[in-house]
Amino acid sequence: MDKDINQSSFPLPNLGKTLLKIRDDVYHGRGFATLRGFNVDQLSPADVTTAYLGLTSYIAERRGKQNQQGTMMINVVNTGKDVERDNAQVLMPFHTDLVCDTLSMLTLSSGPVGGCGVISSAWTVYNELAESRPDLIDVLAQPNWPFDTHGREPPYYRRALLYWEDEKLITNYSRRILVGESIEPRTPGIPGLTEAQAEAIDALHAIGRRHELQQSMHQDLRLAWERVFNDLERQEEWHFVQYSPTGEQHVIPVWSKPGGDGKGPSPPQPPPPVNRCD
């Protein structure tokens, strides 16, 4: 069904113009947006799905699979005991979703206490590194970082975390598949990070923390919301809500990219090691 939901099949004569402006801001401006007032309680689950995909089609029409089974929409639910999602946990450190241009996130429900999404500008992180630790930029741009494939073949692959394409910075990494985590340990026998790589990825997190922007997921503040990131230029972090018997956190992410011929960009080049991104 989802491939049939696009701007043509989901016309929005008035709101559509605003969404297209948001799309331009996501890709060429500040890189993120938040929509409020999408009242999911008044819609059936099928209508919520249709409306959600229809809205996001104005930002990016081509949706991507989020697992090896080809699922394009995944429910992320925190019930207080665990987060019911492949490879998810209560605290997700800064990362970028690896295979999409944009990330959309719809909150269906939230618990009564706490919970937030955190984003940080990769450009700001890069600029601080360029001024204080340009040697770490060189480490991040080297194509020798060992990414765990968690049971697939080959068991790992190597590439860089930092790129430069069309005068734009691209940061693309996930700490989980570089160092592992408690619910999905690193595959035995594959290379680990070097001391320099460990220092560099810690620096990404520490600087991102200093410049973070928190977006509350609390239901009192927004009943349901959608956020859209230019995922290759932002890094994000999730803090799920504190559980109580009266509520749970339930969000639905969608990975997507703009429509067109489907051709990817030319191979990106490493960024200049000491220049600022302005």
From TrEMBL:
Which parts of this chain are annotated as the region Disordered?
A: 254-278
Kindly give the InterPro entries that the UniProt entry links to this protein.
Answer: TauD-like_sf, TauD/TfdA-like
Keyword Oxidoreductase appears in the UniProt entry: yes
Annotated protein name in UniProt: Taurine catabolism dioxygenase
Source organism: Fusarium napiforme
Residue spans with biased composition (Pro residues)?
265-278
Q: Start and end of every TauD/TfdA-like domain?
A: 5-214
Question: Which keywords fit this entry according to its UniProt record?
Answer: Dioxygenase, Oxidoreductase
Query: One MF term from GO for this chain?
Result: dioxygenase activity
